[in-house]
Amino acid sequence: QVQLVESGGGSVQSGGSLRLSCARSGFTYRRYYMAWFRQAPGKEREGVAAISWDGSTRYEDSVQGRFTTSQDNTKNTLYLQMNSLRPEDTATYYCAAAPLGPGSSFVPTLRSAFYNYWGQGTQVTVSS
After folding, report:
1. For the residues of 20-38, what is the DSSP string, one character each?
2. Closest Cα to residue 23, out of 66, 72, 90?
């Protein structure tokens, strides 16, 4: 059974930093995408950052240069380092995983429909 558990959310002031973690278990796929999504009240869920099994990444335009996603496969953990946080970054952040078959692109997608497994979310609040 695949489980994804996020942690590291909290409240910070504008310009501050947070590091989110996503611990995965039961996920034994060799090829995969893992991603971070967020959803603010009254808004649709949006993809923020994604990483593939080989380390290729993709970022949503508004976080490019501020957020960095990485993974430590020895710890089965995905990270999202968020710097220069803005009030508009306030949302619940979710970790997601998508197992892949042979021949899949190295470049991960930010389309939520592609992802099969989801964590429960962690709240990030940025005050001005």
Report:
1. EEEEEES---SSEEEEEEE
2. 72
